[in-house]
From TrEMBL:
One MF term in the entry's GO annotations: ATP binding
NCBIfam families: ATPase-Plipid, ATPase_P-type
Active site: D529
Subcellular location: Endosome membrane; Membrane
Membrane topology annotation: Multi-pass membrane protein
Gene source species: Huiozyma naganishii (strain ATCC MYA-139 / BCRC 22969 / CBS 8797 / KCTC 17520 / NBRC 10181 / NCYC 3082 / Yp74L-3)
Any GO BP: endocytosis
E.C. number: 7.6.2.1
P-type ATPase N-terminal domain ranges (all copies): 193-242
Start and end residues of each stretch annotated as Disordered: 1-38, 105-134
Pfam families cross-referenced by the UniProt entry: Cation_ATPase, PhoLip_ATPase_C, PhoLip_ATPase_N
Gene behind this protein: KNAG0D01670
UniProt xrefs under InterPro entries: ATPase_P-typ_cyto_dom_N, ATPase_P-typ_P_site, ATPase_P-typ_TM_dom_sf, ATPase_P-typ_transduc_dom_A_sf, HAD-like_sf, HAD_sf, P-type_ATPase_IV, P-type_ATPase_N
Name of the protein this chain belongs to: Phospholipid-transporting ATPase
Membrane spanning residue stretches: 1042-1063, 1075-1095, 1102-1119, 1131-1150
C-alpha cells in the first residue's frame, strides 16, 4: 500500500468515480495520481462571432489569470527581426507559470472546423492584422480592451518557431497534439477528417519491407552473431576459404531462422489481433451503414450496446437510462476489475440525434497519457455549457457493461487515445547469467586471437601472407565462440517458462518475461507491498469507535438493537444533536453516515444483490450496515435509498454533490438532501491524517486511531456537518463557476470545498477494517529469510498498522529490536538516528515516507549503506515513486538482484524497476500482474518460484552454457593440435557436414536434455532453504568453473587428437582414417560427459543419449566423403577408440569423484543426511 502526495480534494459531480476508492487507513492502493490539465485558454472562440460579447464571463477570468502567469523578457534591439515590410515581428515570449507548468494558449485558426462562418464576420476577424506567429489567435478578438491588456505584456521576441521554455530554450510547435481541440459533430468529421490521426490500430513491429533489415540489425548488434557473420562472409574470399561455405553458413542460418520464425509468428499474431480490432463494425448516427473501427473519425457520434468495445476515446453524451448513467469495464485499460460509472452531461442527455449532431460543441483538452484525468466542456447552442471530466469519458478498449445503449462522440483517435499513449514497448531485461556469459565470451574471443597469433609466430613470418594465416586461424577456431550458445539458452528459457506455468503446486502462474528465469535463483533483496500482497485484501469491519464506547462483531446484536429502533428515533437520522445525547442516537447517526457516505452501487444479478465499488474497504462497511439492519437498497446519480430491515421502511436522500476519494485527498464526501426533514447534510470520511484537521477538536481520536493501528486495523474517520439552505446555494453557485474553469480547475474547486464545507465537522466515530493475512505468509517469509533474502516491506499504511502486520507476518521476529524513525523532515541530526543500526545489525528498521524522503534527498548513500545490511526494513507512508526509487537505488549500490512483488496499480512502478517483477492477481485487479515478469495468485507461491524453479533454471542454464562452450573448445583444441603437428599450416581438420552435425544432430539433444536435470528433490529446497545462498554467490558459473572447464577441454582435446594421430599417422593418405577415429571419439566423448554430469535421470535423457548415438552410427555410411569406412570396420579402429575414450574420460571422472568426496557441496551433504 502506498500513499502519494495529497493536494486538495476535487469533485466530479457524480456518485461513483471510476478510479477512486477508500483505502482503509487512507492509503490509496490502486489510485493513480490525477494529473489535472492546466491549459490556459487564452483565446476561447465561441462560434463564429468575433466581438467581445461572444465570449462568456469565464474567458475574461481565464485570460486575466493567464496573463498574470506570463513573464515577458525584454530582448536586445539587435535581436529583433524585421518582416518584409520593415515592421517588427513579435516572434515569441517566455512564460513562467506559478506551478512550473508550461502554459500554452489555444491555437485558433480560420479553418473549416466551423465552415458556416459568414463572410462579414470572417472579414472582420481577418482585418485584425497582428504580425507574428500568434496573429491567427488574435484574429478572434475585436475588443481593444482585451487587445491592450494582451499587448502591454509583449515587449520583445526571439523566435517564430514556438514557445520557448525559460529553462533551456526548448521550442514547442503549436499543433493539434498540444492544444485544445473544438469538436463539432456535424462538421468536424467532414471538414477536418485529415486533421487528426486515423483510428487504425497497429501493434505490429514490422512490415514486409522492414522485417528483414530490422531483424538482421537486432541480431547482428550482438557480438556473437556479428563475429560469425564476418567469418561466414570471409569464406567468399578465396585466400581465406578453408572448408565448405555451408560449414559456417548453416549454424548461423539455423540461429537466425529460429529467431526470425519466432518474431514472424509473434508479429503475425499481433496483426491478426489488430485486424480483428480494426474491422469491428460500429453504428454511426449520421450514416446508414455499419462503419469499421479503423474508419471512425473525430466528431462522429457512435451508438454502443452492451458488450461492445469502445473503439476510440469518446465523450458520453446520452444513455438509454433516464439518469444518463452507464457502467463500463476497464480491466483491459487499467487492470481494475470493478465496474466504473460514467454519466452523460445533463445538457446532452435529453437531446435527440439531430440536436447532438448539429447543436453542440465539445471543447477537449490536448491529448495526454493520464487515464484518470480529463478537462473539457460541452456547449449547447453556444449558450448553456456543462463541464466535462473523467466521469463523462469512454476511453478506447473499455467495454460497455450496462444493458441498453449509449451514444458517444469521438474526440481522440488512433495514436491520440489514452490506450495508445500508454502503450509502450516493453524493455528487454537482461539476466545476470547472460552478463556473466558475456564476460566469459570476451575471454574466449581474446583467447582465439592470441592462439591464432601464437601459431603464426611459431611458424615464422617468412611468409608474406602471414596476416592471411592469422585470419584463417581465426576462422578455424571460430567454434571456440559457439554460435549455438544463444539459441540453446533461449530455448532453455522457454522450457523453464513451460515448467513454471505447468507446475500444479503454483496454479495459474504466468511467465510474461521469459528472458530472466535464471534470475529467480539469484535474488538477494525482496521488496514487497503489504495490502493484497502479504494480506488478502479481504476486508471485514472489525470495530467502530464512538469516542466513549466501541463495538466489535461480537456485539453486533447491540448495534442491531439500536438500529431496529431507528424509526422510533427518526429525529436522529438527520438531526445534529449534542455529544451528550444517548448512545443509541449516536450509534444510529454513525450507521446512517456509513450507509450514505460511500461510492458503492448495488446491482442485482440473477436476483442476487451484489455491490460494485473501487475499494473492498467500502464494500466491507456497506455490508456491515446491512448486517446491523440498514441496507443500501438503491443508488443512482441523483439519490440513495436505504432499507430499514426490521420495519421495511425506506429512507430517501437526494444526492446533491459527491466528492470522490483519491490518493491525493485521502477522503471522500457527499452532500445529501433529506426532503422529509428539509435538511442539507454533508458527510465525509477519510484518513486520520487529513480528517483530524477537519473535524471538531477532540481528545480521543489520535489515541484510538493509534490503538486500532496496533491491532492491524485500517482506520477511517467519519464526520458530518449540517448545512443551511442559503449556505448550500452559495456553495453550489461558487462551485459550479469553479467547475467550468479551464485554468487550475481542481485547485479552484478544492478551495471552494475548503471554504464552505471542510471545517468544524461533527466527529461521529472511527471505523477499523481488518485485512487478513494471505495463506501461508508466515511460513513463506520465514523460508525466504532463512534462504538469505533480505525483505523490505514498502507500504502506504500508517506506522502502527505496518508494524502490527509485520509482527503477525513474522517479518519482525520475536524479541527483535525495532528501530523507528518517523517525522524526520530536516537533515540536522538525521545521521545520529542511524548510529544504533551500525552497532546492532540484526535490528529491524521502521521508517515513514517523510523521513525516507529526507534521507533520499540528503544522505542517500549513508542511509542505504546501513539499511541494505539489515535483515528487514519496513517503510510506511510510501508513495509509488518512493517504492520505485528504493528498488533502483538498491540495484545501483549493491549490484545484487532485486525482486519486487505487489498487487495494485501503485506497485507497477516498483515492479517495472526491479530485476525481477512479480505481480499478484488480486481483488484490486490485474494491473500489477500485467506489468510484471511473473504473475502469481498468492504470496506463498513465491517460495516455489524462487527456491525450486529459480534454483533449477540457474543451475541448468549454467551447466548448459558451460557444456556448449566445452563442446566448442574441445573441437577447437583438436584443430589447434592438428595445425601444430602439420607444421603450423591453417588447414581444416573437420569440414562440411562434420562441423554442422557436431553442433546439431550429434550432440545438441543430449546437451539440451540437461535442462530437465535437478540436483536435489523439490522437498529439500523448502526443508533446507539455506541451500539458496549457494545460488546467490554464483558458484555454478564463475571464472573458477570456467577455467576448470577450459582445462578439461584442453586435456580432452589434446588426448583425442594426439592419440588419433598416433594411431593413424599424419600422412596425407591417412587423413580420412585420422578424421574417422578422431571425430568418432569426439562425439562419443561428449555423450559420455553429458551422462556423467546428470544428477537425476529420466526417460527423456536416456532416449536422447541412445537416439543420438544411433543416429550417428546410422549416418556413418553416408559420410564416406570424410571417413575411411573400411578402416572403421576393423578391430584396430575400435581398440584405438576405446583407448582414447578411457584416457580422455576416466581421469576426469576419477578426479571429480575424489574432489567431491573431499569437498562435498552443500546439496550433497543434505542428500547424504536425508538418506541416513
Amino acid at each position: 500500500m502506498s500513499s502519494e502526495s495529497f493536494p486538495s480534494l476535487h469533485n466530479n459531480n457524480i456518485n461513483n468515480s471510476s478510479r477512486d476508492h477508500i483505502s482503509g487507513s487512507g492509503s490509496g492502493k490502486n489510485n493513480t495520481k490525477s494529473d489535472s490539465s492546466r491549459n490556459i485558454n487564452v483565446l476561447n472562440k465561441q462560434g463564429a462571432n468575433t466581438s467581445l460579447d461572444s465570449f462568456d464571463l469565464q474567458f475574461d477570468t481565464s485570460f486575466d489569470a493567464a496573463l498574470d502567469n506570463l513573464e515577458i523578457h525584454t530582448q536586445k534591439e539587435s535581436q529583433r527581426r524585421k518582416d518584409s515590410g520593415g515592421n517588427t515581428v513579435p516572434e515569441s515570449f517566455e512564460m513562467a507559470s506559478l506551478d512550473n507548468d508550461i502554459a500554452i494558449p489555444k491555437k485558433h485558426s480560420m479553418d473549416d472546423t466551423n465552415p458556416l462562418l459568414d463572410r462579414e464576420n470572417a472579414s472582420r476577424a481577418n482585418s485584425m492584422d497582428i504580425n507574428g506567429p500568434y496573429s491567427s489567435s488574435l484574429r478572434t478578438l475585436s475588443s481593444d480592451n482585451i487587445f491592450q491588456r494582451f499587448s502591454k505584456y509583449v515587449k520583445r521576441s526571439t523566435s517564430t518557431s514556438g514557445w520557448r521554455l525559460p529553462s533551456n530554450g526548448t521550442s514547442i510547435t503549436l499543433n493539434e497534439d498540444n492544444v485544445e481541440r473544438e469538436v463539432h459533430p456535424g462538421t468536424t468529421p467532414i471538414y477536418d477528417k485529415n486533421k487528426y490521426p486515423t483510428n487504425e490500430v497497429s501493434n505490429a513491429k514490422y512490415n514486409a519491407i522492414t522485417f528483414v533489415p530490422t531483424l538482421l540489425y537486432e541480431q547482428f548488434k550482438f557480438f556473437f552473431n556479428l563475429y560469425f557473420l564476418i567469418v561466414a562472409l570471409s569464406q567468399a574470399v578465396p585466400a581465406l576459404r578453408i572448408g565448405y561455405l555451408s560449414s559456417y553458413i548453416v549454424p548461423l542460418a539455423f540461429v537466425l531462422t529460429v529467431t526470425m520464425s519466432k518474431e514472424a509468428l509473434d508479429d503475425v499474431q499481433r496483426r491478426r489481433r489488430d485486424m480483428e480490432s480494426n474491422n469491428e463494425l460500429y453504428e454511426v448516427v449520421s450514416q446508414n451503414r455499419m462503419v469499421p473501427s479503423k474508419d471512425l473519425k473525430v466528431g462522429e457520434l457512435v451508438k454502443l450496446h452492451k458488450g461492445d468495445r469502445v473503439p476510440a476515446d469518446m465523450i458520453l453524451l446520452r444513455s438509454s437510462e433516464s439518469s444518463g448513467e452507464t457502467f463500463i469495464k476497464t480491466d483491459q485499460l487499467d487492470g481494475e476489475t470493478d465496474w466504473k460509472l460514467r454519466v452523460a452531461p445533463a445538457v446532452t442527455q435529453s437531446l435527440d440525434d439531430s440536436d447532438l449532431q448539429n447543436k453542440i460543441t465539445i471543447t477537449a483538452s490536448a491529448p495526454k497519457k493520464s487515464i484518470h484525468a480529463f478537462l473539457g466542456k460541452v456547449t449547447y447552442k453556444n449558450s448553456s455549457s456543462n463541464p466535462l471530466s473523467i466521469d463523462n469519458t469512454l476511453w478506447a478498449n473499455t467495454v460497455l457493461a450496462s444493458t441498453g445503449y449509449c451514444v458517444g462522440c469521438v474526440v481522440y483517435t488512433g495514436k491520440d487515445t489514452r490506450q495508445a499513449m500508454n502503450t509502450t514497448v516493453a524493455t528487454v531485461k537482461t539476466g545476470l547469467l547472460e552478463l556473466e556469459i558475456n564476460s566469459i565470451s570476451k575471454i574466449l574471443c581474446a583467447s582465439v586471437f592470441a592462439l591464432s597469433v601464437a601459431l603464426v609466430c611459431f611458424a615464422g613470418f617468412h611468409n608474406n601472407d602471414w596476416y592471411v594465416d592469422i585470419m584463417r586461424y581465426l576462422i578455424l577456431f571460430s567454434t571456440i565462440i559457439p554460435v549455438s550458445l544463444r539459441v540453446n539458452l533461449d530455448l532453455a528459457k522457454s522450457v523453464y517458462a513451460h515448467q513454471i506455468e505447468h507446475d500444479k503446486t503454483i496454479p495459474e502462474t504466468i511467465v510474461r518475461t521469459s528472458t530472466i528465469p535464471e534470475d529467480l535463483g539469484r535474488i538477494e533483496y525482496l521488496l514487497s507491498d503489504k495490502t493484497g500482497t502479504l494480506t488478502q485484501n479481504d476486508m471485514q469491519l472489525k470495530k467502530i469507535h464512538l469516542g466513549t464506547v466501541s463495538y466489535t462483531p461480537e456485539t453486533n446484536d447491540i448495534v442491531s438493537g439500536y438500529v431496529s429502533n431507528l424509526i422510533g428515533r427518526k429525529s436522529t437520522i438527520g438531526g445534529v444533536s449534542t455529544s451528550r445525547r444517548d448512545i443509541s442516537g449516536r450509534v444510529c447517526d454513525m450507521i446512517v453516515a456509513l450507509a450514505i457516505c460511500h461510492n458503492v452501487t448495488p446491482t442485482f444479478e440473477d436476483d442476487e444483490l451484489t455491490y460494485q465499488a473501487a475499494s473492498p474497504d467500502e464494500i466491507a462497511i456497506v455490508k456491515f450496515t446491512e448486517v446491523v439492519g440498514l441496507s443500501l437498497f438503491k443508488r443512482d446519480r441523483h439519490s440513495v435509498t436505504l432499507l430499514h430491515s426490521k420495519s421495511g421502511a425506506t429512507f430517501h436522500y437526494d444526492i446533491l454533490k459527491t466528492f470522490p476519494f483519491n490518493s491525493d485527498s485521502k477522503r471522500m464526501g457527499i452532500i445529501v438532501y433529506d426532503k422529509e426533514r428539509d435538511e442539507y447534510l454533508f458527510f465525509q470520511k477519510g484518513a486520520d491524517t487529513v480528517m483530524s484537521k477537519i473535524v471538531e477538536s477532540n481528545d480521543w481520536l489520535e489515541e484510538e486511531t493509534a490503538n486500532m493501528a496496533r491491532e492491524g486495523l485500517r482506520t477511517l474517520v467519519v464526520g458530518r456537518k449540517k448545512l443551511s439552505k442559503k449556505l448550500f446555494e452559495q456553495f453550489n453557485k461558487d462551485y459550479e463557476e469553479a467547475s467550468l474553469s479551464m485554468l487550475s480547475r481542481d485547485q479552484q474547486m478544492s478551495g471552494i470545498i475548503g471554504k464552505f464545507l471542510e471545517h468544524d465537522l461533527e466527529l461521529l466515530g472511527l471505523t477499523g477494517v481488518e485485512d487478513k493475512l494471505q495463506k501461508d505468509v508466515k511460513s513463506s517469509i520465514e523460508l525466504l529469510r532463512n534462504a538469505g533474502i533480505k525483505i523490505w516491506m514498502l507500504t502506504g499504511d500508517k506506522v502502527e498498522t505496518a508494524r502490527c502486520v509485520s509482527i503477525s507476518a513474522k517479518l519482525i521476529s520475536r524479541g527483535q529490536y525495532v528501530h523507528i524513525i518517523t517525522k524526520l523532515s530536516k537533515p540536522e541530526g538525521a545521521l545520529n538516528q542511524l548510529e544504533y543500526l551500525k552497532i546492532n545489525k540484526n535490528a529491524c528498521l521502521l521508517i515513514d515516507g517523510e523521513s525516507l524522503s529526507m534521507y533520499l534527498t540528503y544522505y542517500r548513500e549513508e542511509f542505504f549503506d546501513i539499511a541494505i545490511r539489515l535483515p528487514t526494513v519496513i517503510a510506511c507512508r510510501c508513495t509509488p515513486q518512493q517504492k520505485a526509487d528504493v528498488a533502483l537505488i538498491i540495484r545501483e549500490l549493491t549490484g545484487k538482484r532485486v525482486c519486487c512483488i505487489g498487487d495494485g496499480g501503485n506497485d507497477v512502478s516498483m515492479i517495472q524497476c526491479a530485476d525481477v517483477g512479480v505481480g499478484i492477481v488480486g481483488k484490486e485487479g490485474k494491473q500489477a500482474s500485467l506489468a510484471a515478469d511473473f504473475s502469481i495468485t498468492q504470496f506463498c507461491h513465491l517460495t516455489e518460484l524462487l527456491l525450486w524453479h529459480g534454483r533449477n533454471s540457474y543451475k541448468r542454464s549454467a551447466k548448459l552454457a558451460q557444456f556448449v562452450m566445452h563442446r566448442g573448445l574441445v573441437i577447437a583444441i583438436c584443430q589447434a593440435v592438428y595445425s601444430i603437428c602439420s607444421s603450423f599450416e591453417p588447414i581444416a581438420l573437420y569440414k562440411g557436414w562434420l562441423m554442422v552435425g557436431y553442433a546439431t544432430c550429434y550432440t545438441m539433444a543430449p546437451v539440451f536434455s540437461l535442462t530437465l536435470d535437478h540436483d536435489i528433490d523439490e522437498s529439500l529446497t523448502k526443508m533446507y532453504p539455506e541451500l539458496y545462498k549457494d545460488l546467490t554467490e554464483g558458484k555454478s558459473l564463475s571464472y573458477k568453473t570456467f577455467f576448470v572447464w577450459c582445462a578439461l577441454s584442453l586435456y580432452q582435446g589434446c588426448i583425442i587428437q594426439w592419440f588419433s594421430q598416433a594411431f593413424t599417422g599424419l600422412a596425407t593418405d591417412n587423413f580420412t582414417k585420422m578424421v574417422s577415429i578422431s571425430f568418432t571419439a569426439l562425439v562419443i566423448n561428449e555423450l559420455i560427459m553429458v551422462a556423467l554430469e546428470i544428477y537425476t535421470w529420466n526417460k527423456t535423457m536416456v532416449v536422447t543419449e541412445l537416439v543420438t548415438f544411433a543416429f550417428y552410427v546410422a549416418s556413418v555410411p553416408f559420410l564416406g566423403e570424410y571417413f575411411q569406412l573400411k578402416y572403421m570396420t576393423t578391430i584396430r579402429f575400435y581398440a584405438g577408440l576405446l583407448v582414447i575414450l578411457l584416457i580422455s574420460i576416466f581421469p576426469v571422472w576419477a578426479s571429480k569423484s575424489v574432489y567431491r568426496a573431499l569437498h562435498p557441496p552443500s546439496y550433497a551433504k543434505v542428500q547424504e543426511f536425508t538418506t541416513v
